[in-house]
Amino acid sequence: MVISSLNTEAPDPRLPRYLQIRDALMRRICARAWTEGEALPAEDKLAAEYAASVGTLRKALEVLVSEGIVERIHGRGTFVTRAFDRISMLRFIGFSLTDTNELPATATLAIRVVQEPAEARQQLGLQASDKMLYLHRTRSIDQEVLLSEHVWLPYKRFAKLEAYLRKNNPLLLYPVYDALCGVLVSRAADQLSITALPDADAALFKLPQNSLGVRIERCMTEHTGQVIEWRVAFITTDRFQYTVETR
């Protein structure tokens, strides 16, 4: 059976057919037709559903791959990207300081509903009257703080998170965004720089004022492309590591 419209929103007829299919698949992913880590149907089946050739369907999937929405695993198929598995801030921390493969302990130092700073509102695309949920979290091993994270979220979409985090300290926030708030993260854009640590963060690291550290500024988007988190994290230079593989 050919399904000409799998969504309430009709495809834009001005677009090439493969982009129409890309948009339709995106809407299905956002509607949780397939969850993170789940395989999409076989290419020939999807092509038949959209009355398109397999080649056209593959072009649509290639766009979603380039956007980080899905990933292809050779010999297995196409899967909705499990973004939180590869974009955790923990990848910036060196673990050579421990021989036990111990994961850092997480502590939440602050949970507040705020309207400042203006930069956070701007990054999240919010109005001056909109509220944000602010979080300050640290990661530590043997009581040594390795990472200090400041997180701003649009309160309207993350109101449930406030009460949850007052009772729980999850290692990763992104799976909680999905399970609790229905927000599925897709892509992280990170900017790294060396800067003087803010005084409060330097104190957490037990370093003197004006000590240098690594600043990681992140804009996290969901599958629709909307920025849903702005995060600024700090790591001391001696604990920072970053490996890039190029092919």
Using brief descriptors, characterize the structure shown.
alpha+beta; Arc Repressor Mutant, subunit A; Chorismate lyase; two-stranded antiparallel ribbon; 7 helices
Number of domains: 2
Number of strands: 8
CATH topology of the largest domain: Chorismate lyase
Strand order of the largest sheet: 3-4-5-8-7-6
C-alpha-based Rg, rounded: 21 Å
Shape: elongated
Structural class: alpha+beta
- Give unreliable regions as ranges: 1-8, 96-100
CATH class of the largest domain: Alpha Beta
Percent range of helical residues: 25-40%
Beta-strand residue fraction: 25-35%
Distance between the termini: 42 Å
Q: Main β-sheet: number of strands, strand sense, barrel status?
A: 6 strands, antiparallel
Number of DSSP helices? 7
Mean pLDDT: 85
Q: Summarize the helix and strand pattern as letters.
A: HHHEEEHEEHHEHEE
- What is the CATH architecture term of the largest domain? 3-Layer(aba) Sandwich
The CATH superfamily label of the largest domain reads: Chorismate lyase-like
Task: Explain what you see.
With 247 residues, the chain is of the alpha+beta class. The protein folds into 2 domains: 17-81, Winged helix-like DNA-binding domain superfamily/Winged helix DNA-binding domain (Arc Repressor Mutant, subunit A); 84-236, 3-Layer(aba) Sandwich (Chorismate lyase). It is 27% helix and 29% strand. The protein is built from 7 helices and 8 strands; from the N terminus they run αααβββαββααβαββ. The chain has helices spanning 17-30, 43-49, 54-66, 118-124, 155-165, 174-181, 199-204; strands at residues 70-73, 77-80, 105-114, 132-141, 144-154, 185-196, 212-222, 227-236. The strands form 2 sheets. It has a 6-stranded antiparallel sheet, with helices on both faces. A two-stranded antiparallel sheet has the order 1-2. The longest helix has 14 residues, at 17-30. It is elongated.
